[in-house]
Amino acid sequence: MFNSLRTRLSFSFISLNVLASFVLSVVMYYISVNMFITDFKYHKLSIAKFISTYIDPEVHKKFNSNDITKDITYNQYYKIIKKFYNQEINIRYIYTLNYDSKLNKLTYAIDSNSMDRDTIWIDSDFFSLNASIKDNIINIDYNSDIYKSNFILPVIVSSGSEKMSFIFSDNKQKVSTYINSEFFFEISIINDSLDLIINQSKLNSKNRLIESNVVIRKKEIPVKFSYSSKVVKNSNPGMDYIESEENINKIIIILQSNEDYIDEEPTDSNYGSFLNAYSIIKDSLNVPVGVVIVAVDDKNISEFKKQFTIIGIIVFFITIIFSISVSLILANYFTKPLGLLINAVETLGSGNLEALVDISSDDEFGRLAKSFNLMVSNLKIASEVQYNLITEISQLNDSLEQKVINRTKTIHAQSLELEKQIQIAQKIQSSLLPEAIPYISNAKVSFKYQPMMGVGGDFIDFYYKNKDELILFICDVSGHGVPAAFLATMVKMTIQNCYERMLKPTEALKKIHNSLIGKMSGHFISAIYCSIDLITGVLRYSNAGHLPIIQITKDGSAKYISSKGRVISEILPVKVEEQVILLSEGDKIILYTDGITEARNSSNEMLGEDRLLAIVEENYTQTTNELCNIIYNSVLTFTGDNTGQFTDDITILAAEYLG
After folding, report:
1. What's the CA gap between 403 and 397, in Å, rounded?
2. Residues 6 or more apart in contact with residue 600 via CB below 8 angstroms
C-alpha cells in the first residue's frame, strides 16, 4: 500500500493536516464550551446574588415557622424568587436557608417549589425521593428521573452501600420497597389518593407525618415520611434542612468562608445531581445569617456540548477534504525529481557503473544528484579495492574465531567464581537465621524460610533472654538476590543492638531506618517488630508498611490485625505507630512476607489474603511448626510447582502464647 514514495508523502501530508484539523477542532470546542459554561454559571450565580442582596437579613431571620407564610414581606420575597424560578427553564430549585451559627444549624426559610399533585416525600440523610399519581399509576421521582417500573436505588452510607429495590405491581398502583430482601415500606393508590404503610403505621392525607428508622449496614438511619397536598410548598419555614451530612457540611463551610460560590461540576444530593449556586445573606455586621441556593439542571450545558461537537465534526471534515487536495499536488511536485533518481539507482543496481543522473536545479534534489554521481565514481574505485579486502578479511576471520574461544573460557571461569560467591553469601545469610529454637516458657515459636535464589531479602529473628518477654521480628527488602540479602544482613546487625538496648517497637524500627540511611541505594524495607509479655499476654507491635499480622484464637477464629505504618526508605522519614492487643491462652500469631499472598497459579491468580486466612482457620489446631509447613505446602500446591522455585522469597514466622 505504501510502496510508492508519492503515496507515503501524500499519506504524511494528509495525516499532518488531519492532526492539525483535529487539534484545531478540539481547541475551538474547548474554548467555546468553557466560555459558555462560564457565562452560564455567572448568570445563575448572579440570580442568587440578586436575591440575597434584595432580602433584608434581619427580616429573613424571622422566617422560622409556618405562620410566617401569611406575612406580606415573606410573600413579596416568595413572588420574586418564584418569578426567577418560572422564567429560568433550567432551574430546578430556588430556596433560602437560615443559619444559626451558635447551633451550627440550617433551617428552611423560603422555598419556590410546589408540586402540581399530592405527593409523598421520603427523606433521610442518605437518600430522598417522592411518589405521586399520574395517569392513574404511581410515579417515583429520583434525581430528576421518573420511574414507572421496577428499579434499584443504591443507598450509600459511610461503611459502604446497599440496594433499595422498588417492585411495582402489574397494574402499577402499588409499589413495595425492600432493602436487601427485607421489607421496608409499601405505597398504594386507594380512592385516587396515595397511602404509605410502614411498621403498621399509615401515611395519607389525614395522617401527614411519620418518622421511623431503618437499619442499613448495622447503622440506624432516621427516615421522615411526609404527605403534601398539591400547590403546597415542598418545605416550610423553620423546618430542618434535610440533606446528606456531606452537603450540609459543604454549605456550612461556604457560609463560614463568607464568600459566594458555584459548583465546578454537578454535585450529587439526596434529590439528584445539580449545579448549585450559593449566595450569602449577610447582616449589617457582614456576618452570614443565611444563604440563597439556586439548583440548576445542567442539561443546557450538555446540549450545547452536543451541538458544538457536531459543528466541530463538520469543520473537521471540510478541512480534511481541502488537505487531501493540497497534499496530492505537493506530493506530485516533490516526487517528480525523485523518479529520475530512482531510475538511475536501478541502473546502478544492475551492475552498470556508468549510471549517472542529470538534474540541473540548485535545490536538495540537485545536490542529491551530484552526490549520486560522485558515489558512482567512488564505487568504481571501491570495486578495485574489494578483492584485496576480501583476502584480508579471510585472514582476520581465523584470528577472530580463536579470540571467541578464549573469551568463552574466561566467561565460564567468571561464572563459576560468581556461583561460589553466591554460595558463600548463602552460608552467611543462613548463619543470620536462628540456628535452633530454644525452650521458651509460656510460648512456642517456629519458622519456615525459602529464598527465591540462593540468597534473598526476607529476614526473621526472635529474641528470648528475658524470661518475661519474647521479641519477634520479620522484614522484607525490596528486590531479590545479593543486594537484598546484603541489606537484610545490615538489618540483622542493627536489630541485635535494639534487643540489647530493650527498645520499644517504634524505637527499634526508627533505629533500623537511621542505621540504613545512605546505604539503601533505592531499596525499601517493610518490617514488623513484636514484643510479647509472657506473663500478661500483652502484644505490643509496630508495622512499617508490612503485611498485617494474622491472629488465631484458641477456638479457631482467625483475623488480620490492621495497623498503620510507612515502609522504611531513604526518600521519606519513618512513620510508625505502636499497637497493643491482648493474647489469651492458646492464641497464635503468624508473620509472613508477600511471597505467600502474591504466589500465582497457572491462571495467573494470586493466593491472596482470603485463601491464606482460610488455610489458617482450617488448620488452627496444629502446632506452630505444622502450621508453617502446611502454609508452605499449600503455596506449592496452589502454584503447581513442587520444586520450590518461587518468583519471590517465602518466609513464615509463627508463635503460640501458652498462658
Report:
1. 10
2. 606, 607, 639, 647
Cell representation of residue 338: 525523485
Residues in the chain: 659
The closest alpha carbon to 293, from 139, 478, 25, 112, belongs to 112
Looking only at the bridges linking them, the beta strands covering 525-533 and 538-544 are antiparallel
- Mean pLDDT for the stretch of residues 30-58: 88
Among residues 243, 242, 233, the alpha carbon closest in space to that of 69 is found at 233
Closest CA to 84 of 38, 40, 36, 48: 48
Phi, psi of 162 (to 5 degrees): -130, 170
Q: What is the pLDDT of residue 536?
A: 95
For the chain, the C-alpha Rg in angstroms (whole number) is 40
**Contact in structure between 229 and 118 (CB atoms under 8 Å):** yes
- Counting DSSP H helices and E strands in the chain, the numbers are 11, 28
Residue identified by cell 404509605 is 196
Torsion from C-alpha of 541, 544, 547, 553, nearest 10 degrees: 10
> Which three cell numbers, joined as nine digits, stand for 5?
514514495
pLDDT in tens, 280-293: 999 999 999 999 99
Terminal C-alpha separation, the chain = 81
| Per-residue pLDDT band at 396 (split at 50, 70, 90) | confident
CA-to-CA distance for 208 and 232, rounded, in angstroms? 13
For residue 6, what pLDDT band results from cuts at 50, 70 and 90? low
User: Closest Cα to residue 630, out of 644, 615, 642?
Assistant: 615
Residue 341: DSSP 8-state? H
User: Is 608's pLDDT higher than 90?
Assistant: yes
Q: Among 40-54, 98-112, 177-191, 314-328, where is mean pLDDT lowest?
A: 314-328
User: In the structure grid, which three cell numbers stand for residue 174, read together?
Assistant: 402499588
For residue 547, is pLDDT > 90?
yes
Q: How far apart are CA 433 and CA 426, in angstroms?
A: 11
Domains contained in the chain, CATH given: 1-54+298-352 (no CATH), 92-297 (no CATH), 434-657 (3.60.40.10)
CA distance 178 to 170: 17
State the Cα–Cα distance between residues 529 and 572, nearest whole angstrom.
Answer: 20
pLDDT reading at 533 higher than 70 = yes
Could you give the CA distance from residue 322 to residue 24 in angstroms, rounded to a whole number?
A: 15
Q: What is the dihedral of CA 333, 335, 336, 337, to 10 degrees?
A: 110
Q: What does the pLDDT look like over 337-373, one tens digit per residue?
A: 666 667 767 776 666 766 676 776 767 767 777 776 7
